[in-house]
Amino acid sequence: MANLLVTGGAGFIGGNFVHYWAQRHPEDALIVLDCLTYAGNESTIAGAQQAELVVGDIRDTALVEKLLSEREIDTIVHFAAESHVDRSISGPDAFIDTNILGTNSLLRAARKVWLDEGSGRSHRFHHISTDEVYGSLGPEDPAFSETTPYQPNSPYSASKASSDHLVRAYHHTYGLEVTTSNCSNNYGPYQYPEKLIPLFLLNALHGRNLPIYGDGMNVRDWLHVEDHCRGIEACLDKGTPGETYNIGGGEELPNMAVIDRICTEVDRAFAEIDGLAERYPDAPAAKGRSTHALKTFVKDRQGHDRRYAIDETKARDELGYVPSWTFEDGMAQTLRWYIDNEEWWRKLAG
């Protein structure tokens, strides 16, 4: 039996991880530490029976120390982060506070309880990061590997790069047993509707424009959140302390291809699901028109990275990680989840 502290566990990826771990490791205890800011939602982890929510801030080092000691935590899975690039451009301070100072607070608490107080408890601090720390790729550049130099281009990616370095430093300086995973763009259930896929899905249902940055040809690797959770599980189970692993979905696509898939899936859903037109009468598909008509080009984001791509060879060879979701199947599943769970997103998106 393991005792896990999951930071940011009421958010998108953290919440999916809580459900994933609870289903596959029912004997383990899950303590979820979350501030419940705009992207954190207690209902996201409803149904995960062994998950206990503690509302608190990762920057509260004393609280983290207390949880680690009193709950005999042996594993920290650190999701808590500000993650929306547009928000980091308009307000970078929150990203510095949470992603850098918050991570440092967790590391300090882990060092004190696991190392300085001499409990001798076997432990692991797993840090979830992003491929955005590597910067932007040209069309013919090789995909990001774990040895790609860091070149972050937004306040968000710079704050995540800083936190990655702190995690590495606590291993090499103090001996804290850490692993880090750098993932590509996640999608799936419970994602806050500011990110591309849920935003465009909900806009399509309500007949709102689909705002496409620039020419729509920025390329990302798309990772279904369940595959990401499997990758994290592999890092915890088989990862070598001090090592970093890239977790990708194997689906490198331009944004236009993603948006076209969203439009196609929405049109298909209206053709196949009885009553959908009555629920969402403003959708073009409810009136027999194509969702593609909502596509609108807007001014590009400041400093918009052109291409990300993940080389997951190390994770495959050392951890046995292989993504299981195709983007086509994952998009269909994701759209159906949002249609079936209107109560969850309605209070967030209006």
From TrEMBL:
Belongs to the NAD(P)-dependent epimerase/dehydratase family. dTDP-glucose dehydratase subfamily. The lineage of its organism: Bacteria, Pseudomonadati, Pseudomonadota, Alphaproteobacteria, Sphingomonadales. It catalyses: dTDP-alpha-D-glucose = dTDP-4-dehydro-6-deoxy-alpha-D-glucose + H2O. It holds the Pfam family GDP_Man_Dehyd. Coiled coil: none annotated. GO terms for biological process: nucleotide-sugar metabolic process. Its cofactor is NAD(+). Residues 5-333 form the NAD(P)-binding domain. SUPFAM superfamilies: NAD(P)-binding Rossmann-fold domains. One of its GO terms (molecular function) is dTDP-glucose 4,6-dehydratase activity. Keywords: Lyase, NAD. NCBIfam families: dTDP_gluc_dehyt (TIGR01181). PANTHER family: DTDP-D-GLUCOSE 4,6-DEHYDRATASE-RELATED. InterPro entries: dTDP_Gluc_deHydtase (IPR005888), NAD(P)-bd_dom (IPR016040), NAD(P)-bd_dom_sf (IPR036291). Its EC number is 4.2.1.46. This is dTDP-glucose 4,6-dehydratase. It comes from Aurantiacibacter rhizosphaerae. It is an enzyme of class 4 (lyase).
